C-alpha cells in the first residue's frame, strides 16, 4: 500500500521502526563473532534516528540468554541511552494502556516520567529467550523497564487464561491500537486457544476508526501438532501482525485471505544458526500508518556479517566424482574444499560500504551423504580456512540421507486412525522437555519416580535447554519440596500414609501448578520492590537504597570431533558449548569459563518404545553438569527423588511435632 498521496498531512502519519530477534549477547565470548549482535542493533537504532520515527517496536528476543551477562546488559543499556534519549518532542499521545507496562516505576510509558528525557520510545514484548518464566519471575526486560529504557508490554500474568488489552495511541487523525502477545510455550498456548481462554479485546468504534496492530512471538511455521500458532487463530479485526521468533526475513507484508489481515515477519538482525533461512538478506522496516492504511518500507541492514549457505547431495555427484572407485572420503573432501573456496568468493559480493560491517564471512556447506565412507574430518578441513572465514570449526555440516520406508496400506477404522495419529504426534516431538516427559510417563512402576513429577523434570529441561538457566534444577526442586510439604500439612496426613499421599500429589500436579510457583515468586519480588521504592514526588528528596532481585538457535561452542556412529543414532538437543555467561550465584575461580564444555543432552528422537536403555543415565549426566545441590552422589534423577522424599517426610514430622 502507498501513502505517497500529497493530500495526506504528514502530522497524521505514525512512523514506527520494526525490528525483532536482536539476540544481544549471542556468542559474545567468540573473539571473531562476539560483537555481531551489538553492531546490527546499533545500526537499527541509528536508522531509527535518521528516519525520524515516532517509536521503535521490537518483536521479542532482545537478548539471547534468559540471564544476559553484565557485558550484554551494559552494551544494550548504553546503546538505548545513546540513541533513544534526547530533547525531541514525542508526537504520539498515549490515550490508554497504563496497565500494560510491566516493571515501570511510574506504571506508565517512560516518556511520561518527569525524571527521564526520552526522544524515541521503545516498545517491546518478550520472546522465548528473554521471557520471565525463570525462577524468580523477572525478565531482563523488567530491568530495562525499571531503568526507564523501554516500555515492556504484552507480558502474561496468568497461564490459565490470556487477556490482551490494547495500548491506545494517537497522532493527529490516526488512532492506533497496539496489541502484544509475548511468548508462551506453543503447546500451552494451543490448549488455551482450544479452550477459548484467549481473549483479545478491541476498543470501541465509538471513539473513531482504529488501526489494529499486533506483535507476537511464536512459531509461525508448522512444526508439528500443537507446536505453532496458526494465523487463523487470531481475530480478523486485526490489520497487521508483526511476527517475531522466525529468523527468516519476510518483512514485506503477506496477505492472509482467510482472516483478511497482513503478516510481516521481520526475521532476526543477527545470524544465530547457520541455516538456509538465516542466509536471506536481513532487514528492518519503517511502518507508516495513516488511519486504516499502512505501508512497510524495508531497509536492508548493512552491518550484518556476510553469510553464504549451500547444500550438496553427494549421491547426485557420484558419477562426476567417480565415487565407485578409489578413496571416496578424499574425493568428497576435495569437492568440499573447492565449494568452500567458491562460497568465500561469493561472500565478497555481500560486503557493503559500512565501516562497521564484519568482513570475514560465515560459511555453511551442508553435505548430504548416504554412506559413512563419504565423510571426512571437517574440523581439519576448517583449519585450512582459519583466517578466511568466521566459523572454521562448523563450516561443514554432514546430514545423513534417510530413506523412509513406504507405508503399508491399512484399514481406516476409527480406533486404528486414533492410534496412528498418536504415534505420528509422538514422532513429531522435537523438544527435549516433551521427550523427557514422555519417557518418564512410560516407565515401569518399579522404576517410576516417587515424588518428582515428569512435568517438573520436563520444565527443568526446558529452562536449561531453551533459556540457558543453569539454576533451574536447583530452584525448581526447592520450590517443589515446599509445595509438597504444604500439601501434606494442609491435608493433615498421618505418617504411615505419607508415601501414598506423595504419590497422589505427584499425579495431581499440573503444568499450570508448576508455573504458579513462578507466579508466586514474582508477586513476592514485586511486593518487595514496591515497598522499597518511593513515589516520584518523594524520590527527589530521598536517596533510599532499593534491592533488585533477579533470579530455534544454536549457540557458538568449542567444537570437538565425535564418533560418526554416535551422531547417527542420537540427536544433540542441547549444544550450549562454553559461551554462556557465568550463572548467578556461581563462584569466580579465576579461570576462563568459556573454555568449559557444558554437558550435551543426547536422546533418541524416535518413538517412546525405541528409547535407549540408558536414557535415564543420559539425563542424569546432563543435569549433573548444572546442579550444585548438596545431595547424595552419584547424581541421579532417582537419587534426587529419593532424597526429596526423605526430606519431605522428615520436614513433615518436624512440623507435626511443633
UniProtKB/TrEMBL annotation:
Q: Which SMART domains match?
A: Mre11_DNA_bind
For this UniProt entry, the molecular function terms from Gene Ontology, in alphabetical order, are: 3'-5'-DNA exonuclease activity; manganese ion binding; single-stranded DNA endodeoxyribonuclease activity
- Where is the region Disordered? 526-594
What task does this protein carry out? Answer: Core component of the MRN complex, which plays a central role in double-strand break (DSB) repair, DNA recombination, maintenance of telomere integrity and meiosis. The MRN complex is involved in the repair of DNA double-strand breaks (DSBs) via homologous recombination (HR), an error-free mechanism which primarily occurs during S and G2 phases. The complex (1) mediates the end resection of damaged DNA, which generates proper single-stranded DNA, a key initial steps in HR, and is (2) required for the recruitment of other repair factors and efficient activation of ATM and ATR upon DNA damage.
What's the protein here called? Double-strand break repair protein
What is the native source organism of this protein? Answer: Glossina austeni (Savannah tsetse fly)
- Composition bias (Polar residues) maps to 526-537
Which Pfam families would you find in this protein's record? Answer: Metallophos (PF00149), Mre11_DNA_bind (PF04152)
Cofactor requirement: Mn(2+)
Any one GO CC term of this protein is: Mre11 complex
